[in-house]
Amino acid sequence: MNLSPRWKQSLALAASVLLGALSLLAAGLPALDEAARLEEQGRCKDASALLQTTLADTNLSPRLRQQTEFELDRLDRIRKDYPLTRESLFTALQSATRDLTPTEFEQWLEAGRFDRRSFDGEERFMASSVSNLYFRHPELAGRRLKPGGTAGYQLSVWKNCQNLLAAVVREKTNYVLPTRFSCTMTVQVKPDIVPAGEPIRCWLPVPRRYPFQRDIVIRFSQPLERQVADEFSPIRSVFLEQPSAGLQPTVFSVDYAYTAAGVRFDLQPKQSRPVPTNSPAARFFTLEAPHIVFTPEMRALAAELAGKETNPVLLARRYYDWVSTNIQYSFALEYSTIRNLGTYCLTNRYGDCGQEAFLFMTLCRLSGIPARWQSGWATFPGGETIHDWCEIYLAPWGWVPVDPYMGIWAMQCATHLSPDQRLQVRDFYFGGLDQWRMITNSDHCQPLWPAKKSLRADTVDFQRGELEAAGKHLYFGQFSYDLIVHEILMGVAE
After folding, report:
1. Is the confidence at residue 281, as pLDDT, over 80?
2. Quick one: how far is CA 428 from the chain centroid?
3. Average pLDDT of the segment spanning 190-216
4. Using omega within 30 degrees of 0 as the cis cutoff, is the peptide bond preceding 396 cis?
């Protein structure tokens, strides 16, 4: 498992970031601790006032100033995730649920079926409360007025898994059915967000080089002048800059093409070997990291599931199967507002694709199995969306993909498939990946290039773009994003 110079640099930088975060925690700034306590109590105005007073201290170190500024901004981010009042939530549920009564709604509130928070005595509910109700309570599916998911899409996913498996056997390789894609990503800053003529800096995600993602060509951008990160960057971007259009949308876009292959490894436990402990990558990707924390609860679960098993393949599979059957899918709060994504998922027993991946990665690292983030977009026709999954290192195969969300989707959501088909889909995504992916990240919490001067909108991932103007970040809601994907017939001129 040799590391390229770029990877060594990336690992060193990530280690520095982690050490810096630990140093900050060790400093134990009382104001940050107190502000966190006030926030948890719902006293957001008091927390905000305390943080603003702290920022007025001219002797505050640059590191603590940056952290305090983020905590102040985080309070506003949290509020944006909870826009619904009790009345507006009931109205939304009535339009989505057959025969819902006020009495039943109150019973659901009492049972804690919705994510809610208090903001200075004002009760608010999460934006995705209606969708998450049906994810977490599938018994209500028959009352849903706008059913989600289709039989055709589910069958297409299963058929694609079968085609990839057959191709692996036929071609005797782990990378099969290469597919050429043409993509255009567009980000539009909303009118009047930034004064006319003020420069806006923009980072857009583009594919990075991988064994199964290659022949990447950046064909066009708006504006034309651009900086493109190294093709092996763990967070690959195109950097663009142009003046704000003022009262008109300011449009940034990038057009690119790439080839992605499906992946499938036949992970036979008898062939498994211990991970080389002298490998720098193995040592790094078995450590604690932001959102991968070895809490007592995580240690207890890993030990319970592992039992006396020591085979890395069987251990990872136990964790994958447990997540597939015990964690429910839910739309997530913004990642930057959550202290520990893996623990959040375990505590609540629900989460989105990234939170589920963090939980799985934490369990693997606790057992000495290297695990790292992988993310970008899922582009399967009918299911195009931002998406996160991960890779684990298993000797002698190397890095192999694992998508915990697809295990959950197969076992809990793919209700139009037969039980055997659902198991086949679940099994495929342990060591397999479909070709309908655009991978831009190969690790989490990585810094952008060139460096962003302001706070990140997403401190963990990079899929929707990042923007800033006048040294301040633009947050989600101030810009829109869209990815258009077309399949190109192999051998046809682009």
Report:
1. no
2. 21
3. 97
4. yes
Tokens of 30: 């009382």
| Average pLDDT of the segment spanning 104-109 | 98
Q: Which residues contact 329 (CB under 8 A, 6 or more apart)?
A: 135, 350, 351, 352, 353, 356, 405, 408, 409, 412, 413
pTM over 0.90: yes
Contact 375, 335 (CB under 8 A): no
Tokens 């990160």, located at residue:
229
Span 151-171, pLDDT tens digits: 999 999 999 999 999 999 999
Enter the tokens of residue 115.
Answer: 């994510």
Bridge partners of residue 479, in order along the sequence: 189
**Rounded-to-integer distance, Cα 434 and Cα 156, Å:** 12
Would you place residue 50 in the very low, low, confident or very high pLDDT band (cuts 50, 70, 90)? very high
Structure token pair of residue 412: 């809990």
Domain 149-494 CATH assignment equals 3.40.190.10? no
Q: Which residue has the tokens 């990665």?
A: 361
Beta strand 437-441 with 175-189: parallel, antiparallel or unpaired? Answer: unpaired
Report pLDDT digits (tens) over 386-436.
Answer: 999 999 999 999 999 999 999 999 999 999 999 999 999 999 999 999 999
The two tokens of residue 86 are 């009790």
- Mean of per-residue pLDDT scores for the chain: 93
With beta carbons less than 8 A apart as the criterion, state whether 372 and 286 touch.
no
CA–CA separation, 189 vs 463, rounded Å? 16
- Map residue 54 onto helix, strand or coil: helix
Strands 116-119 vs 122-125: parallel, antiparallel or unpaired: antiparallel
Specify the DSSP element, H or E, that contains 372. strand 371-378
Residues 218, 269 contacting (CB under 8 angstroms): no
| Percent of the chain with pLDDT strictly greater than 90 | 89
**How sure is the predictor about 278, in pLDDT bands with cuts at 50, 70 and 90?**
confident
SS3 state of residue 243: strand
Distance, CA of 358 to CA of 388 (rounded, Å):
10
- Residue 493's pLDDT band, with cuts at 50, 70 and 90, is low
Give residue limits of the domains in the chain: 25-80, 86-143, 149-494
Cα–Cα distance between 350 and 136 in angstroms, integer?
Answer: 8
Pick from 330, 334, 331: nearest CA to 78 = 334
Contacts of residue 406, defined as CB under 8 A and 6 or more positions apart, other chains included, come to: 389, 425, 426, 428, 429
Sequential DSSP letters for 421-462: HHHHHHHHTBSEE-S-EEEEESSSSPPPSSPPSS--SSSS--
CB count in 10 Å sphere of residue 323: 24
The secondary structure of 260-296, three-state, reads EEEEECCCCHHHCECCCCCCHHHHHCCCCECCECCCH
